[in-house]
Specification:
It holds the Pfam family GDP_Man_Dehyd. This protein is of the alpha/beta class. It has helices at residues 18-30, 69-75, 91-96, 99-119, 154-173, 195-204, 224-237, 254-264, 290-296, 305-318, 320-336, and strands at 9-13, 35-40, 59-63, 81-84, 122-128, 177-182, 184-186, 210-212, 218-223, 243-246, 251-253, 273-275. It has a domain at 9-192 and 220-249 and 284-302: NAD(P)-binding Rossmann-like Domain (Rossmann fold, 3-Layer(aba) Sandwich), CATH 3.40.50.720. Helices cover 41% and strands 16% of the residues. A seven-stranded parallel β-sheet has the order 3-2-1-4-5-6-10, sandwiched between helices. Strands 7-9-11 form a three-stranded mixed β-sheet. Strands 8-12 form a two-stranded parallel ribbon. Helix 6 (195-204) crosses helix 10 (305-318).
């Protein structure tokens, strides 16, 4: 068993984004001895509203880009770990314009690794199950830590690149790192371009939801709170140089998820339109998180998807002022892409 790591001052990159901000909330609520510095460029996907109200003596905010080496030289000293969430993450956007994905996901990770090397601190890298490509719908297999990489979109290929950089820097320079690859997250603070919040906010806005292709593509859903607890477990207990897959056995196809949203929001289950499928759309993702559960004793708490979805619908219903300002621009962009 690896000796437990007890961080006191951590940097969370992308801490104003969806998954990153939920992690910041998790740390503040569950680990009162830890101070968090949020580093975020505040792109369209990040908002200070996501960390509003957190205690100022526990959370500092730095507005900046992870590609800015001079900035990293200023803020990294005095911290004992970086938890790296910052990423361009939306597949449709990566297909329309891959360049920001290369800049943030590849160059940004390189800059952080160089900073970690310079100042000798711990580093945890947040990645995605999409680096493994996809599985056949009728295949009983699930992704494991030894599944070969086979990314299929500009987004997933840049995340795969960043994972490989972490492994290379760890082996070459002896960095103290861990990596996690997680399945699809859902929960509060998720941008309305993503599948579940897009459907919820469409219904709340009186817009008919849209479904790619036949909707039989399968995603493995996990509540963002469970992702946060898993990341904390890996950061503090994980073996250095190791990768852990995070999943909660939440396989559902997109059609069933949309029908469930419609049903829970009092709509007919067929009140949606089919649209042309996304190019190269991955068929199925599925995570085997046995290593994380057996080695580190982690387990998910939000195992009832219907209940988690119900709470997510309630959050978007009660926080319309949070998403309304981005909704129109998002739908305009989708329309331009024919979706």
């Amino acid at each position: 068993m690896t000796e437990a790591f007890t961080p006191k001052n951590i940097i969370v990159t992308g801490g104003c984004g969806f998954i990153g901000s939920n992690f910041v909330h998790y740390v503040v609520e569950n680990h009162p001895e830890v101070h968090v510095t949020v580093l975020d460029a505040l792109t369209y996907a990040g908002s200070l509203d996501n960390i509003k109200g957190l205690p100022e003596d526990r959370v500092d905010f730095v507005h900046g880009n992870i590609c800015d080496a001079e900035l990293l030289d200023k803020i990294v000293p005095g911290h004992d770990a970086i938890v790296h969430y910052a990423a361009e993450s939306h597949n449709d956007n990566s297909i329309a314009d891959p360049e920001p994905f290369l800049k943030t996901n590849v160059e940004g990770t390189f800059r952080l690794l160089e900073s970690v090397r310079k100042f000798g601190i711990r580093y945890h890298h947040i990645s995605t199950d999409e680096v493994y490509g996809d599985l056949a719908l009728d295949d009983p297999a699930r992704f494991t830590e030894s599944t070969p990489y086979h990314p299929s979109s500009p987004y997933s290929s840049t995340k795969a690149s960043s994972d490989l950089l972490v492994r290379a820097w760890t082996r070459t320079y002896g960095l103290h790192t861990t990596i996690s690859n997680c399945s699809n997250n859902y929960g509060p603070f998720q941008h309305v371009e993503k599948f579940i919040p897009r459907q919820i906010t469409n219904i709340l806005s009186g817009i008919r939801p849209k479904l790619y292709g036949n909707g039989l593509n399968v995603r493995d859903w996990i509540h963002t709170d469970d992702h946060s607890s898993a990341v904390w477990t890996i950061l503090t207990q994980g073996r250095l140089g190791e990768t852990y897959l995070i999943g909660a056995d939440g396989e559902k196809n997109n059609l069933d998820v949309l029908k469930l949203i419609l049903k829970q929001m009092g709509q007919p289950e067929d009140a949606f339109d089919h649209v042309k499928d996304r190019p190269g759309h991955d068929r199925r993702y599925a995570i085997d998180s046995t290593k994380l559960r057996t080695e580190l004793g982690w387990k998910p708490q939000h195992t009832n998807f219907e209940s988690g979805l119900d709470k997510t619908i309630e959050w978007y219903t009660n926080h319309q002022e949070w998403w309304e300002k981005t909704k129109a621009a998002t739908e305009k962009r989708y329309k331009a892409q024919g979706q």
